[in-house]
Amino acid sequence: MPPLSCLLRRSFALWFLLSGILVAADPAAPAPKWKKLTPQTPAGFTLKTILVEAHPEHNVELYVYVPDAAGSWPCILDIHGGGWQARQIEVDKPMMERLAQRGYVTALVSYRLSTEAPYPAALHDCKAAIRCLKAHAAELKLDPARIGIMGGSAGGHLSGLTAMTTGKKEFDGPGPFPEQSTDIKACIVMAATQDLVAANKDKTNDNARLFFGATCQEKPDLFAQASPITHIRPGVPPTIYIEGEKDTLKVGRAEAMEKFKALNIDTALYTLKYAPHPFWMSDPWCAEVVEIADVFFRKHL
């Protein structure tokens, strides 16, 4: 027989129900269980590997999901995270596979890590990847005038910096396909700091020190140059931010959005319920990211 306390709770619940008063059965719903995702090239697509540029320390490559159907498609380039020092291509693939199925050519770039070459090597590789996509547009069935980028964590920083330096030739680097532009049309930044000076001025971040070869205290101008917020100006692409509710504050994001709004450049923040860092690698949050990204890129690409 149930204990007296349990019987009393049931009696009170029945009384409220009979009295016509609605009682919430579970006022604090539990967080959803996350599901690990694995890459699986979707039917109707071919995964191609394109060499962007060979370096002694690493060959920069593009992994591109190309539709088997004829056409010219908008393209989304993913820049992976990993603290600038871990290569996380595989865990970003499921997101890009799902976006490909929404009607895009999608690509991921394997850029040089901080353990292989210091900043600005990674930025130069991302710029070279954009030029490479445009140079191979016919083969990859993409429209070179409709390219967007996205990335999370360190990849979110690089996505933001790549987008905000659109039109600034001094950031393009000496890589291949110099006849091609590095301009892009839209950007998504996920879970990434946008002001590296404000985030690092009073502390030492080992990932940043390895990436830049110095601390912010030693080279504040370098940290400022590599901060996406530094380069927000008229003509930069529309940029939205996706963040996880359970992640840490991303320094400079709010201030960057204020700059966009003052310039009448499309921007928005999406905060995913219960989502940790890095949310885009697992469901249910990968599915939410894909939905947000599809709507945004359809609008701007």
Structural commentary:
By secondary structure, this protein is an alpha/beta fold. It contains 10 helices and 10 strands. Strands 2-3-5-4-6-7-8-9 form an 8-stranded mixed β-sheet, with helices on both faces. Strands 1-10 form a two-stranded antiparallel sheet. α5 links the parallel β6 and β7 (186-190). α3 (121-135) crosses α5. The relative contact order is 0.14. Mean pLDDT is 91; it is low at 1-27.
Defining traits:
301 residues, alpha/beta, eight-stranded mixed β-sheet, two-stranded antiparallel ribbon, 10 helices, globular
Note the beta-strand portion.
Answer: 15-25%
Sheet of most strands: 8 strands, mixed
User: Residue ranges: pLDDT <50 for 5 or more in a row?
Assistant: 1-27
Averaged pLDDT, please? 91
Enumerate how many helices there are, as a single number. Answer: 10
Radius of gyration: 22 Å
Across the major sheet, the strand order is 2-3-5-4-6-7-8-9
Overall form: globular
- Helical proportion? 25-40%
Helix/strand structural class: alpha/beta
Please write the string of helix (H) and strand (E) elements.
HEEEEHEHHEHEHHHEHEEH
